[in-house]
Amino acid sequence: MIKAIFWDNDGVLVDTEPLYFQATREVLAETGVALSREAFIRISLQQGRSAFDLARDQGATPRELEDMRRQRNERYSALLAHAPPALPWVKETLHALHGRCRMAIVTSSLREHFDIIHRNTGILGYFDFILTREDYQHTKPHPEPYLTALKRSGIAPAHCLVVEDTQRGLQSSVDAGLACAVIPNGLTGDSDFSRACHVLGDIREVIGLLG
């Protein structure tokens, strides 16, 4: 019996991953480093590494890399200010699940970006708690984010379900001992989701998993 659902944010609840890719690609391009869509998917969404590793491999110093991250975060914030609201069927699905189990968001997003994203989504009231990048030392694909969620919820792993959209998120949840349902999107559809307990067509199918 599922007593808690831990939701990823970007790509599951909101369509923000293309904006993160855009901001990262633009900053890298200014340093002469090309970031393709395929490389971003492989490095960031599948392996869980920073795309700025490409600049590091071409000789960028730690100080230069930090400046690139700062610029990327500023551009991403600006793009998010005009981002669309929650993805289709998200609010309806959360409404249908509300009260049937505990729910939380477990994201690698910085809190400042998370707050911008959800200014107008109207969905945060459905969640019992929210964990952002500042709440753990190691981010996905490390299991710490979901281990932190488990500890916060007080619910046994066997009664929890994770909903993700990326290979790095799937690895994080499975390594934390949790079952994970994956909803692939335009950036993640070709990833390896063989470790998922379910691969869903859209978010509405999560409702049926509660039985």
UniProtKB/TrEMBL annotation:
Family annotation (InterPro entries): HAD-like_hydrolase_sf (IPR050155), HAD-like_sf (IPR036412), HAD-SF_hydro_IA (IPR006439), HAD_2 (IPR041492), HAD_sf (IPR023214), PGP-like_dom2 (IPR023198)
Its EC number(s): 3.1.3.18
Pathway in which the depicted protein is active: Organic acid metabolism; glycolate biosynthesis; glycolate from 2-phosphoglycolate: step 1/1
Family that this chain belongs to: Belongs to the HAD-like hydrolase superfamily. CbbY/CbbZ/Gph/YieH family.
Family matches, as SUPFAM superfamilies: HAD-like (SSF56784)
GO biological process, one term: DNA repair
Pfam families from the UniProt entry: HAD_2 (PF13419)
A GO MF label: phosphoglycolate phosphatase activity
Record-given protein name: phosphoglycolate phosphatase
Reactions it catalyzes: 2-phosphoglycolate + H2O = glycolate + phosphate
Native species: Geoalkalibacter ferrihydriticus DSM 17813
